[in-house]
Amino acid sequence: MPLIDIGSTKQLFLDDYLIESMANVKQVLNPAVKVDNNPVIKSERPWEGNNSRPLRVLYEEDEGLFKMWYSSFTLSLDPNMTPGGQTGIVMLGEDDPPVTCLATSEDGIHWERPDLGLVEFQGSKHNNILPPTEVGAPQFKDPVETNPTRRYKHLNWTKDTKAPMKASLYYSPDGFDWTPYSGNPVMDTTPVIGRWGPTHVMGWDPIRETYAAYVECSHHMRAPFGKRIIGRAESPDMVNWTEAEAILIPDEMDFPDTEFYLLHVLPYEGLYVGLLWIFRTTNLTHHPELVVSRDGFHFERNFREPFIYRGGRRVDFDHGSVYLSDAVVHGDQVFFYYIGTNRRSPEQMRDLGDDAGEGVGMAVSRLDGFVSVDGGKGWVPHNVTQEQLTQMRNRDHLIDISKGAESFGQLVTRSFGFSGSQLHLNSTRAPIAAGPGIGEIRVELLTFNHRKIEGFTFDDADPIMESGLDQVVSWNGDSDLSRLAGQPIKLRFYIKNAKLYSFQFR
Residue 406 and residue 158: Cα distance in Å, rounded? Predict the structure, then answer.
């Protein structure tokens, strides 16, 4: 009986759970790529003021339509502003109250503002403004809810910043008309003199089969290092909640001014893929960092660079901060929606003038594309000099290297059992500096004690030389692995000038 049984679950490389050894390969973060028409929503209608930010983005499969609830408002500078701090300096325009609007899209990238005809603005109802409610937008659509009037849910916090916070639960059949739970509030932090900070209500957790929320759970002054940290709370019914227990704290590898503002978690192929908001307090910037967990509590931070980079120019709408709002898996891509802003302080707003503001940003990843194993002896760090490159070529004989197994980087998995009859890969050819030859991946099968399995060796393996989300692995033209199902085996991936994102037995 294998110690690890992966069944037919897809396996990614965000951690080293199944990795036994690597040689001349490397786990590489693949940052999401911003779409060309960023920001996908910006304030451009009279009722949208000068700032727009996403509240929630959902894909409604039964309608084949993306829906975005977003907030629009006007910010202006207090003419009596004084240096230091933010509170009371930047204020909402009194003549332009904030509004919640709806946008729709067929592809998730190009958005339209439907004429809802629900709210009058300057004498006309031809706009996409939603009627004001205590609940601006749904936080999630519940996949396990059997009551059709409660398909959408929202946990709404009191806004009094000087008092302990209370949360009330709301239900909706469509994400627009809301009914409060009769037993509200469902949470009252008064007994612990506590507060929840910015919160991602994950909703139904399909892995632990409970409702979950990730929250800034610190009291700042009493938290480790006096910083914002992340906690997790759970509920069996969205009514009875546990206390938020701390799970993520800045460490010695972080800059001294690093704090954690929020954690957005996406359940993905049995993993918790987290986008952690990194807050730098000295320059008032935010960006998301990729983290991963297998139980929802113990997160690994294996990649410390941004998963979505801030804009490079000072006037870019997302130059200052990228606050991830939503992640939506759609087709063969993952869409990331975020609040992009280039001002967080009144001084920045004053200096930017008309360029100051925020909008709805979007970035995209390929399916499973968060992290790849990049391989081959051709892999060279990006910062080597030409002289070093020449020395490496002479040392490793890269120019005259053979086409045999020694020309590939290798990743060997731990032993595991599987179910299914075929092995499928998600991979791409990726030209890599100094890499001889074209991209190629081969797979060799080993017993649990590293003996090669006859008929499934490197020489038997049919090379995979093209890019694809779902490529079937074969040996001498045969892909049938059914006779090995249930037995403990290992995989040895041979990778040259290619990226391997995931594998799955089916």
Answer: 63
DSSP annotation of 239? S
Distances (CA, A) of 478 to 81, 383, 416, 418, 475: 73, 42, 22, 18, 5
Tell whether the model's pLDDT for residue 222 goes beyond 70.
Answer: no
Stretch 373-382: mean pLDDT, rounded? 62
Q: What is the 3-state secondary structure (H, E, C) of 50-113?
A: CEEEEEEEEEECCCCEEEEEEEEECEEECCCCCCCCCCCCEEECCCCCCEEEEEEECCCCCCEC
Mean pLDDT across the stretch 94-109?
89
Is there a contact between 426 and 333 (Cβ–Cβ < 8 Å)?
A: no
Residues 6+ away with beta carbon under 8 Å from 486: 2, 417, 418, 419
Q: Is 254 helix (H, G, I), strand (E, B) or coil?
A: coil
Give the percent of the chain with pLDDT over 70. 86
pLDDT class for 402, splitting at 50, 70, 90?
very low
- Summarised one tens digit per residue, pLDDT across range 309-341 is 999 998 999 999 999 999 999 999 999 999 999
Taking only the tens place, the pLDDT of each residue in 104-113 is 999 999 999 9
Q: Following DSSP, what letter does each residue of 417-436 receive, concatenated?
A: EE-SS-EEEEEEE---TT--
- State the architecture of 5-29+372-505 in CATH terms: Sandwich (2.60)
Asked if 185 and 165 touch (Cβ cutoff 8 Å), the reply is no
The H helix count followed by the E strand count for the chain is 2, 34
Residue 217 pLDDT exceeds 90:
no
Residue 86 has pLDDT above 90, yes or no: no
- Do the strands 75-77 and 179-180 form a parallel or antiparallel pair, or are they unpaired? unpaired
Token readout for 361 is 């940003």
In angstroms, the CA 437 to CA 30 distance is 23
The type of residue at 378 is G
Which of 270-281 are b and which e, b meaning 16 or more Cβ less than 10 Å from the residue's Cβ? ebbbbbbbbbbe
User: Exposed, middle or buried, 302 (CB in 10 Å: 0-12/13-18/19+)?
Assistant: middle
Q: What is the DSSP letter of 475?
A: B
CB 445 within 8 A of CB 407: no
CB atoms within 10 A of CB 430: 19
User: Kindly report the CA angle at 128 between 123 and 132, in degrees rounded to 5?
Assistant: 80
DSSP state letter for 131: P
pLDDT above 70 (res 92): no
What pLDDT does 159 receive? 64
pTM for the whole thing?
Answer: 0.90
Per DSSP, helices labelled H in 269-340 are: none
